[in-house]
Amino acid sequence: MTDGMASTEDDAAGRAVRTMVQTDTASSLLGIEVMLLEPGHVIMGMTVLDSMLNGHGICHGGYLFLLADSAFGAACNSVAGGAAAVASSCDVTFVAPARFGDVLQAEAVERLSFGRSGLFDVTVRRADGTVVVEFRGHSRRLPSAPSGSVAAS
Predict the structure, then answer these.
(1) pLDDT digits (tens, 9 = 90+) for 97-117
(2) Domains, the chain, ranges and CATH?
(3) Which of 12, 47, 96, 134 has its CA 20 to 30 A from that of 106?
(4) Is the dihedral of CA 138, 89, 32, 103 positive or negative?
């Protein structure tokens, strides 16, 4: 993780997101890293590996979705005041292909928050600035659970 995570270091949401990212096996196995973590604004990056290519020789959409979804998850939890937030729905549009060796960055930004719900936009770009994916996610903060119990959605 990079120094970009220091911006929320002293608050509950920042601690929760750091823990979530550190224990995210799927993202770490793909080399996804946090570049910036601020409340409601996260940038994560990954390099397209040979193992991520589909039968057309371009990055499989599932990997692109995972990068965008990881940034979305970190962003929606960065504003939850320490309360867990999960996806309630999302929409993804694949705009351009990503190829072996491309360095990608997913930038997630909170658009609005209402009640326990939030709306976030994520743009995945290649290093040259080309947009690869546009992703919109709706989040839902889980209700606080009494001490010793599991939160219900």
Answers:
(1) 999 999 999 999 999 999 999
(2) 3-141 (3.10.129.10)
(3) 12
(4) negative
